[in-house]
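re the bet — no i am not wrong, look at it urself. input seq straight from the record:
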Amino acid sequence: MIPKIIHQTWSDNPLPQILKYIREENIKLLKDKGYEFILWTDEMIIKLINEHYPNFYKIYNSAITGVQRGDIARIMILYHYGGVYIDLDILILKDIDTLIDFSKDKFNISFEPAEQTKLIYNTDMYLCNAFFAANKNNRFLHKLLYSIPECIDKRGINIFSKFDIFGGGYIMDKYTNGNDVDIFKEHVNIIFDRELIYPINDLKLDNLITCAGDWNSVKKGKYPSNPYMIHYWIHGDFESKKMLNVFKPDINHDIHHNMYIFFNILYNDIAKKMIVSQ
């Protein structure tokens, strides 16, 4: 059984206002439907590691970026507690209890948008760890978690010089390769209708034919696929890092309008092109 706990991670610093707005909207939608929300800080994650996974302390602290630490932490947290992990830039639009079966001991995950991953990774089958859900002690999560030290032993701590170490590519590799693949497939549910979770591509990818439509969807807050959630691809550790700390949402407008304004400022040149093309 998957507990109705929504896990999210952030540093020990205050949550930027736009991410706080998204999170509050999610809590407002689901608080009366039996969901609990936990925001994990660095301090809380280190405490979990020290108390239950001390062998991961050096690994976690050797990670160079917040993204790398977050990829490790989300696997560990869901293995230890079970529940649902979502990135802080995911806005939930409707109850996910019809998206995944909370009564089953399964690891649930989906793919990034096909157009996006064809461009970046040259494949349309790239698992995305911005959202996944699982029961406590899930067997596949056990494999994901305890394969991390094995990777470090084989490749050394310099493995963290690469960006995506224990994210979607890592999960895909463990799902598709190895002698125990058939065993773990019993414990994994791939949500193949990815647009139910990731209805838009990264808005900075202006060479995609979907880009103008994605900008228009964000502006209107309406999505053709009738999704359960929207992943905004904010990239808080990279190009939007500075803006996250200064952007103040306009409380007189809803979250959809505020996200459109946020991206209009962040990617102003692209926004101008998209507005013209619509």
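see?? The domain at 5-199 is CATH 3.90.550 (Spore Coat Polysaccharide Biosynthesis Protein SpsA; Chain A). told u. also The chain has a mean pLDDT of 93. so pay up
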